User: Which sequence fits this backbone?
């Protein structure tokens, strides 16, 4: 059975940097969960970051692919380089997805790990820009399709469950 990797925060787990969840309430997600198709995962926790933690952003103008290639870093709001846990968590997300038969992922938007279309600017100023996170880049490189929460209907059509 094909399964879906889902950001743990979207499933109501309080794993975000601020210790909160970002619960996604949607009938499809509820049904998929009841059908045991959901694999919740937080790459930042898997990479060893605590809850709560300082917010982190990918350097300005870069994306998750740049981080994986060593061309950019992930810095927290105090300027500390937290790139290594983001890369480790991304690799663990790929391993988890592959071991559980996940062909698709539903990830929270704007996160330096999970963003699939948007990231924060890299200046810790609250602005967003087009881009994608480290985990999204790693999953896509492994052939796993990544969707944002507002794309759940497209995800459902692609999965055809």
Assistant:
């Amino acid at each position: 059975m094909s399964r879906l990797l889902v950001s743990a925060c979207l499933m109501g787990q309080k794993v975000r940097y601020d210790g909160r969840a970002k619960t996604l309430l949607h009938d499809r997600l509820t049904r998929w969960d009841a059908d045991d198709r959901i694999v919740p995962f937080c790459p930042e926790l898997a990479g060893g970051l605590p809850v709560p933690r300082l917010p982190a952003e990918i350097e300005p103008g870069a994306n998750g692919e740049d981080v994986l290639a060593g061309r950019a870093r992930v810095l927290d709001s105090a300027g500390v380089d937290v790139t290594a846990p983001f890369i480790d968590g991304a690799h663990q997300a790929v391993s988890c997805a592959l071991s559980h038969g996940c062909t698709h992922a539903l990830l929270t938007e704007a996160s330096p790990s999970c963003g699939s279309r948007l990231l924060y600017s890299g200046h810790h100023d609250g602005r967003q820009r087009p881009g994608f996170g480290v985990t999204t880049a790693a999953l896509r490189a492994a052939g796993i399709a990544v969707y944002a929460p507002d794309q759940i209907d497209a995800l459902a059509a692609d999965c055809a469950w």
Remarks:
- The mean pLDDT is 97.
- The first helix runs from residue 27 to 34.
